[in-house]
Amino acid sequence: MLSLAVFLPIVCGLAMFACRGMTHRARQVLTEGVTLVTSLLVLFCLMNKRGVAYTPLYLLPKLPISFCIDGVGSVFAAIVAFLWPLATLYGFEYMEHEGGENHFFALYTMTYGVTLGIATAANVLTLYLFYEFLTLCTLPLVMHGTSKASVRAGYTYMMYSFFGAALAFVGVMLIIGFGDGGAFVMGGVMSEAAAEHPLMVQIGYLCAFLGFGVKAAVFPFHVWLPEASVAPTPVTALLHAVAVVKSGVFAIIRVTYFSFGAQVMRGTTAQAIALLLASATIVYGSTMAVKEHHFKRRLAYSTVSNLSYILLAACLMTQSGLTAALAHMLFHALIKITLFFCAGAVMVKTERTQIEDLRGLAKVMPFTCATYTIGAISLMGTPLLPGFVSKWLIGSAAIETGTTLGMIGVAALLISAVLTAIYLMGPAMSMYFRPLEGMEPTAKCDPGMRMKLPFAVLAAAIVLCGLFSDPIITLLAKLSAGVM
Amino acid sequence: MNILLILAIFWPALAGLAIFLTPSLKENKKLRGQTVSVALGIELLLTIIMCFGKGTQMVLLNMTPTLRIEMNVDVIGCIFSVLMSAMWLLSSVFAREYMGHDDNERLYQVFYMCVLSALIGQCYAGSMVTLYVFYELMTLLSVPMVVHERTPQAVAAGIKYLVYSIFGAMLGLLGIFFFSNYLGTVTFVPGGVETAASAPSGLLLITFLVIIGFGTKAGMFPMHGWLPTAHPVAPAPASAVLSGVITKAGVLAVLRVIYYLVGADVLRGTWVQKGFMTLTLITVFMGSMLAYRETLLKKRLAYSTVSQVSYVLFGLACMVPAAFEGAILHVVAHSVIKDALFLCAGAIIHQTGKIYVRDLRGIGKEMPITTWCWTIASLGLIGIPPTGGFVSKWQLATGSLETGLAGFDVVGPIILIVSALLTAAYLLPVTINGFFPGSDYDYSTLTNKEGSKLMTVPMILLAAGVVLTGIFAQPLINVIMTAAASIL
Fold first, then answer.
1. With an 8 Å Cβ cutoff, is A467 touching chain B?
2. What range does the domain containing B389 cover?
3. In a domain, A387, yes or no
4. Which of A261, A434, A437, A474 is the most exposed place for a label (fewest CB within 10 A)?
């Protein structure tokens, strides 16, 4: 069942390459159908098949490719399964302006399967394999525009990703070598190795952290992410705010808690370096976002910063840290995809890309601007909305550790919160309170139903997550305690 | 009582949204204004009823296992909430005339009502987290009131307001993180949860940062910069509540941190108390000085707020019962007075279009009621008996003498008195030039420009309030005494 969920989108995507002659409508029905079926499969697996491992293939006798949906993986799988059908729906209307839909949606669907593969990988080799696939699948999507800028962005993306993968490979080899095949076990498999070769394990951890950190846009490996915002919005929204970057984060969570082990790594220099890098990235990303005047690039820098919120929490290597990391992974995914969708809607409907051009847009795009504002006030951490909950969790988890590094992290978090207010509320305020320029105030620029529906669903999800955060957080806390 | 508590908190917001969405109220401006006033009247009633429900406790919402929105009605909360809803009602009546020709008035009303909800929630908050939640909501909801005019200056002022406030709130949040770590709880306990002997060393620094953070809303130096920018650009009824009431939200937060969380015993005599007192005294003097130099009428009042709210903070910093009473009395007195002054300024601007103090020659002949109200309120702010301002300043000065901190017990009263002189110097010229324009004043063009009853009645009521809070201060003092006894 689980393997089916992973391979169905991949196979269907490949099939779509083969049949080029499909009509728009047929392709849309097929794509959305496959995506929905896959999401239902994931839902079924989450309900019934948690903790059961499947091994469809052995690379070498001791190197199985196997899948298993456990607590942490189910969070990532659930996020992806919820957002993918919405993003696909949004993509239909959006991509009419971009063209090349056949191979776009083929790759887009394949990426879904690959991401699920990462979410459900049961050992480090499987994770690594799908991680590499992810780079390959998404590379053509970044270069979809075929303009000079997109090709350059694609090139940057490729170089950074392969560099990261190579670095991560060192860590992966170490885990497989010392950790008995590298199956994911809560608490890690490296405690013996760490006792024997402490330095090597630390270096291995750093390699894995930095390597997977490339996709998670850790400073100084974040450069590709803002560049990649030239890609079509469905790509930047889903892949560069959720699937790809969160794969990096997820991989780091996996190796930290399930391979190296939080117990083993806590208090080491490697952890200190990881925490400092995350803190630095938080402030750096927000600062760059404030300086940036291109709407989508600003959001991309915001992603850089927010991904490191998750990493900061995860690298605290405590149970409450993991809870906080999972919470922010979920909430940031919801919020950031919403913000990108809004930016994309503004871009295709009015061809405005700079922050300055957003003035007065609330008059002609009320629905889009309202959704953006909900997203913005959530991310800046307004109470009763999800951003506040995750900030609260991260902050208290960091203080709880009682270390200087934790306090540095909290300081970074709060500085960044102020900057977030500046870079997100500035556009929102000019949308509502500045006069509209260069357009008739009677014009109606809100997008059609296929874009509005994802807006509405996401905005509702954000508000509900904020108001009813208690059951969600309780569940995440249980998951991170390894109970389920 | 629980249902009444929920109603008291959410009634304004719900009523505001209902009024916004009801189709028959969309077109009919007059009916809408009346409905708003009635809704706020009900809210005032609700908050008064809540005074009989002291001790009501409840958990509104669990956000995470450690993050609870809990309410607890106590004396301080009741005083603040009744005061706030009363000011809100009077300003809304004034706004019906002032904003009569404003296209965006409907939107303004929604936010106006929602802000009150957040403020009332803050009054009844039973823990630091709850207070923070409502504080942030209030900040965000009040931004549209600041940028209401939609000019570039207004938007810039709104952003400045937002950034300062968020920065302050972040320091507050930082404090909450540390408090829950150091103290093990952030639920308010009268007198604080910590004893001086067992206080961890980092607690003092964090407390100081939190005071600066929440002091931002109260316009305390060094985070006062937003206030003179943001208050004057808002429409006058909004400036009135921004200056008169919303600054008190910062005061309330500081009060809760010092007296209900950390404990005055821990802070008394430490560098935190001295530092806090120094900052407030600097602000008192600086605000008055800047107000004296300012020529724009509303901006002068905004600087005056900077100065006056720090009187209150100074009272809180003294940490003796007399000063605490003075602080709470001054919260009441300043709210009433500043509301009155801003409404007078608004009436003058609305009826004559004059925005500079120097243009107000003869205003007493054109708008006698307004100028009389201004005069009474000014006397109150200077601190002349028998107004509320006199009683509160008397208590503040007495309290500061009792602190026993060498230096502060002398410098404090002196600065308060110097600032009172400056207050006279920046407020009374309006009265003097207004009533005595000089022999060269051209009486032939004189017309009565007084506004309608919707404008004058709130002003008269507030002016009466200025005097009544002075004459009948004793019942209020008795109530405050009970609160002071439980926390000091």
1. yes
2. 270-488
3. yes
4. A437
